[in-house]
Description:
The structure holds 2 protein chains of 2 kinds. Chain A is mostly helical. Chain A is built from 7 helices and no strands. In chain A, helix 2 packs antiparallel against helix 3 (48-64), helix 4 (69-82) runs antiparallel to helix 5 (86-99) and helix 5 (86-99) runs antiparallel to helix 6. By secondary structure, chain B is α/β, with parallel strands linked by helices. Chain B has 7 helices and 7 strands. Chain B has helices at residues 24-33, 74-77, 96-100, 102-112, 136-145, 161-178, 200-214; strands spanning 10-17, 46-55, 58-67, 86-92, 118-124, 149-152, 190-192. Classes of the chains: A mainly alpha, B alpha/beta. At the A-B interface, helix 2, helix 4 and helix 6 of A face strand 2 and helix 7 of B.
Amino acid sequence: MADVLSETVPPEDLKKFEKIYHEQLYKNDVTPKAQFEYAWCLVRSKYPADIQKGIILLEELYKTNEEGRRDYLYYLAIGTARLKEYSKAMTYVRSFLSIEPGNQQVISLEQQIKKRMEKEGLVGMAYAGGVVLAVGAILGVGLAIAGKSKS
Amino acid sequence: MSAGPYNYSYIFKYIIIGDMGVGKSCLLHQFTEKKFMADCPHTIGVEFGTRIIEVSGQKIKLQIWDTAGQERFRAVTRSYYRGAAGALMVYDITRRSTYNHLSSWLTDTRNLTNPSTVIFLIGNKCDLEGQRDVTYEEASKFAEENGLMFVEASAKTGDNVEEAFLETAKKIYQSIQDGRLDLNAAESGVQHKPSQPGRNNLSSDQQASKDNCAC
Ligand SMILES: Nc1nc2c(ncn2[C@@H]2O[C@H](COP(=O)(O)OP(=O)(O)OP(=O)(O)O)[C@@H](O)[C@H]2O)c(=O)[nH]1
Ligand SMILES: [Mg+2]
């Protein structure tokens, strides 16, 4: 399948953005841009350990860089879904949609996640217990995406 | 959706590129859903869409990667160019700057794709004739000079949207017939799927693994 949940990053791209990130890390001066680009590649890796690392970098960005929250939330949803942490993924998607209800891109991600859950016999699991976690509860921050920001 | 993965014999990979706000996502949506999104938020990273079309009696599945035009996504979206059989390069006929940036989009595309990649130039929003900022003639000349196919289209009315996607596919299909496009090359952006009715499970496994390495 080729879709946003299954396509994988070309290894040379992952290496390229990893290098930039590490160079900045070495100088103790990591820009949100470099961190995001590296994380975006990591969550598209075929190795779960990479995806996990990408998620950690995105969580950190989410807490520290408010203007990019919309992007981070989207890729947090993708990363967690790829790790089959569907209930977290749905939480990210839901909070995105509570702020930007009609966003077709995110609605279609939500549908893909649901389809995966169905395929794996997990329908209803995300809401078992009746509690959908709040993003704030996962990340330990208050939720606010900086609007739709149509520039 | 109901069509199983074996109802087509080829997969073509497309990318859609161009400045932010030119209407790339609306063109994709118009092509896959036949609907116009009047208030479309900026794409985050990339969006994906598919549709099965028919060229010369062959069913072809188009896998389309719609890239975000905003600057902060540029570096990473470049990795989606690789292995594209078709590239739809879009500008907005009402915003000259989006036209002026075409040569840099073209350079990127040429550098990151292969010589057989079909590049189709789309002047979008042609329903907004009153606000036109780029003439048909100059864009047409630019396309000719650079060997690109070209139409003006409207994601709003649907004018020429089908045509752009289909003409690109026809051109790719022609290259396959002529032998100019090597199906075995890793980054041709084309996969051949001989249909094997009755052997679905087997071919489905093969397909899954194949898809993984093609991305
Ligand atoms: N009148 C008119 N408006 C259009 C047309 N195509 C798109 N638009 C509008 O232009 C705006 C931008 O369209 P998008 O499809 O989001 O543009 P994009 O190129 O995907 O932008 P990015 O995702 O940021 O790169 C939206 O508000 C659309 O409604 C068209 O053919 N005619
Ligand atoms: Mg878009």
